[in-house]
Amino acid sequence: MAGIKRSYDGTDDMEDPKSESPYLSMFETFRTKLDAHHDRRERIIKASRDITALSKKIIFSLQRAQNINARLPANLAKDAGTKKQAIHDLFKSIEPDLQGINAWRYQRSICFGYQEYIEAASFQQYLENGTLLSMQDLAASLPEEIPPASEEDHILGLFDLTGEMMRFAITYTATHGKVPSCIHSEDVDMERQSEDLSQRTCLTDLQQLRGSFEILDTKGNKQIEKEYDQKMKVMKTSVEKVENVAYGLAVRKGERPAGWVPDMSTDRRTEVEAVG
User: Fold this and answer.
1) What's the alpha-carbon Rg for the chain, to the nearest Å?
2) Which end of the chain is more exposed for a tag (fewer CB within 10 A), N or C?
3) Cα–Cα distance, 19 to 157 (Å, whole number)
4) Residue bearing the bigger pLDDT, 270 or 56
5) Residue 251 — very low, low, confident or very high, per pLDDT cuts 50/70/90?
6) 166-209 pLDDT, tens per residue?
7) What is the rounded distance in angstroms from the CA atom of residue 106 to the CA atom of residue 273?
8) Per mean pLDDT, which range of 11-25, 36-50, 104-118, 162-176 is the poorest?
9) Chain-wide mean pLDDT for the chain?
10) How many CB atoms lie within 10 A of CB 236?
């Protein structure tokens, strides 16, 4: 038979010591807050992964475009619009989790989704208008209450954009025998032609981006400093690939018959490589 717990004075009406603990309620509050934090973080990370996946699909679809500074074919525009709406809905679903101080607390959890979306949206902007996506236009494409992407995320997203511009330029050159240019297109509204694009090509745009990134001062900015060297190395390689193709076309133009395009077979991959 189990014994009976007694109090200090020998009586058997001793209360549960847990009910007398002044710390129990405090630690229960801690537990509740930690559970809420982990649940919130998991929702944000999952949404970020889904946003990243959809953004990659948009980029893959946009690589089938044929021109710069021209309206996308209807099927590509519809596909990109559907996926961008799905991304909008994903941002909307985590809107309550990113309010106030939580916008900074979970910034690293959502940043990769932001960067991939910036890359996809900027690529579409470039193909349709021959321009880069501004932070104002980016904010306008997201739910109103969602915290705006940081300048660091915007810059890192543009770094990645150069890789997609390179792939587009290589593919276009292989099929058309010339580097894609930002010429006026008849199916684009005249009001969108705010500058002379006749002398601009995808290569000159990449070179201008390279120059802008090279003069970027990242000292003291830990978020960019951590990735800057690797991003810069990849970006320069992308620009050099397009330069090599353009130089090859210019130098060998007189040696080739009309209609000649670069050989994209596997044995010449080092000369004009299509994938970074």
Assistant:
1) 28
2) N
3) 55
4) 56
5) confident
6) 999 999 988 888 888 876 444 444 444 444 555 789 999 999 99
7) 38
8) 11-25
9) 83
10) 14
User: What is the mean predicted confidence (pLDDT) over 34-63?
Assistant: 94
In degrees, rounded to 5, the angle at the alpha carbon of residue 274 between the alpha carbons of residues 270 and 276 is 85
Q: What is the distance between the alpha carbons of residues 140 and 148, in angstroms, rounded to a whole number?
A: 9
- Residue bearing tokens 């919130």: 40
**Strand ranges for 10-59 from DSSP E:** none
Q: How many CB atoms lie within 10 A of CB 164?
A: 21
Residue range 112-119: mean pLDDT, rounded: 95
- Cα–Cα distance, 69 to 190 (Å, whole number): 11
Residue 271 reports pLDDT greater than 70: no
Distance of CA 165 to the CA centre of its chain: 14
- Rounded to the nearest 5°, which phi and psi values hold at 260? -70, 140
Other beta carbons within 10 angstroms of residue 20's beta carbon come to: 8
Q: Provide the 10 A C-beta neighbour count for residue 13.
A: 7
The H helix count followed by the E strand count for the chain is: 8, 0
Tokens describing residue 83: 């996926």
**What are the start-end ranges of the H helices in the chain?**
24-62, 74-93, 102-105, 107-129, 135-140, 151-176, 202-214, 222-252
| Cβ(182)–Cβ(253) below 8 Å | no
What is the helix (H) or strand (E) element at residue 20, kind and residue range? Answer: none
CA distance 168 to 33: 48
Report the distance separating Cα 276 and Cα 273, nearest Å: 7
Two tokens at 37? 């934090």
